[in-house]
Design a protein that fits this description.
Elements: E1 29-32, E2 37-40, E3 46-48, H1 49-62, E4 73-76, E5 80-81, E6 85-86, E7 90-93, E8 98-101, E9 104-108, E10 110-113, E11 121-123, E12 128-132, H2 149-172
Parallel strand pairs: 2-8, 3-9, 7-10, 8-11, 9-12
Antiparallel strand pairs: 1-2, 4-7, 5-6
Length: 173
């Protein structure tokens, strides 16, 4: 791929990050709409799919006429499940977009390509991907660890049954 400076002349992506004023600087990736490529910047060794790709893509789509390009990514997840937990986020590259990797990068998050013929990553010479997946439950409600009165009574009953069973085993031996 030829060496091209993406976002050249786009102060929105080089200025200090200030989304209220339309400035989205300090991004770890650049988006190449015509070629459907997400290019990880040189020197970047850690990528969070949610923050560095999905969120940055949403910001990139708002600048200039970038919305004319087909969407790059979609997400599922965040659905409530029993126990005050939520399913984790899963991301899918769509419309044949791919991520270009030129160095070893640790990628955190669950990422697939919706086209079974394509891999999410184009790994160039000298590049590599270490994938770290998060747990399914992203949000857990915890208690202070104290037992309710009913739980304490059940535990006392279990302990009593165990003592009796232990005593019965030692008497029969």
């Amino acid at each position: 791929m030829p060496s091209i400076a993406f976002n050249y002349g786009y102060n929105e992506f080089w200025a200090v990050y200030d989304p209220a004023n339309g400035l989205y600087g300090n991004q770890k990736v650049a988006f190449d709409g015509p070629n459907k490529r997400i290019i990880i910047h040189e020197g970047v060794t850690d990528i969070d799919v949610k923050q560095d790709i999905y969120s940055n893509w949403k910001e990139w789509m708002q600048v200039r006429d970038n919305a004319k390009y087909l969407p790059a990514i979609r997400t599922t997840g965040g659905d409530p499940v029993p126990g005050n937990q939520f399913t984790g986020d899963t991301y899918f590259l769509i419309n044949d977009w791919q991520i270009v990797v030129n160095q070893l990068v640790k990628v955190t998050g669950i990422l697939y390509h919706d086209n079974p013929e394509l891999e999410p990553f184009i790994v160039n010479s000298g590049g590599g991907v270490i994938s770290t997946v998060s747990n399914l439950a992203q949000s857990v409600t915890t208690s202070d660890g104290a037992l309710t009165a009913e739980q304490a009574a059940q535990l006392a009953l279990i302990e009593e049954v165990l003592r009796a069973a232990k005593q019965s085993v030692s008497l029969s031996a």
